[in-house]
Amino acid sequence: MIETSRLRLRPVVLEDAWRIEELASDYELAKTTSNVPHPYPKGGAKDFIKMVAEKEKKGEIILLSVIEKSSTQLIGLINININLTHNRGELGYWIGVPYWGKGYGTEAAKALLTYGFEETGLNRIYAAAYTINPASWKVMEKIGLEREGVLKQHLARAGTYYDVVYYGMTRDEYFERS
Length: 178
Ligand SMILES: CC(C)(COP(=O)(O)OP(=O)(O)OC[C@H]1O[C@@H](n2cnc3c(N)ncnc32)[C@H](O)[C@@H]1OP(=O)(O)O)[C@@H](O)C(=O)NCCC(=O)NCCS
Known about the structure:
The structure is a single chain. The chain has 178 residues and is α+β, with helices and mostly antiparallel strands. It has six helices and eight strands. The chain has one domain: Gcn5-related N-acetyltransferase (GNAT) (Aminopeptidase, 3-Layer(aba) Sandwich). The two termini are 22 Å apart. One of its GO terms (molecular function) is acyltransferase activity, transferring groups other than amino-acyl groups.
């Protein structure tokens, strides 16, 4: 469990599935992700949660539900995919469309970055976004990740290839700055 001023980040439970499906079914949300399907399959969130539970047992992912404290509603998901060999994590997140623009994405990402370095002991944390998704790469900039470069047409979605920008921070950089 991670607390910030307005959010609670807690492990995902099977009962979150309906709400995840409700928010993630919005095309506006799915279209800038690499892995949220559209249309979202019925029952897909339950399968997703079960699949993640298996990876969690192996220490390969931390997936947390983002809860708005004031409403106690689930408003998003945030995760770090962990590569154990290289001791690095890839940050990923989505916030439900009705909750965009309130700083929640930044608040949640900052908290998980701190957790990843201070509690999980990762050596590097990075994140990637389509270059056409400023909301996401601005979150990366606002939490202090450094722009590392653009991979051209790196990801395909619905028949279109997208340039992807990578941002990252090493453990040394994190502790030098904090
Ligand atoms: C990316 C996402 C999580 C951001 O969440 P959020 O809670 O709205 O983010 P914040 O409110 O913390 O805003 C972050 C910054 O992005 C800016 N921003 C938000 N939407 C924007 C847009 N459409 N164009 C440009 N900037 C935008 C905000 O203004 C803010 O910058 P500022 O503080 O300098 O003004 C959310 O847009 C989302 O879930 N998108 C769909 C899923 C997704 O793309 N996930 C990332 C995959 S890599």
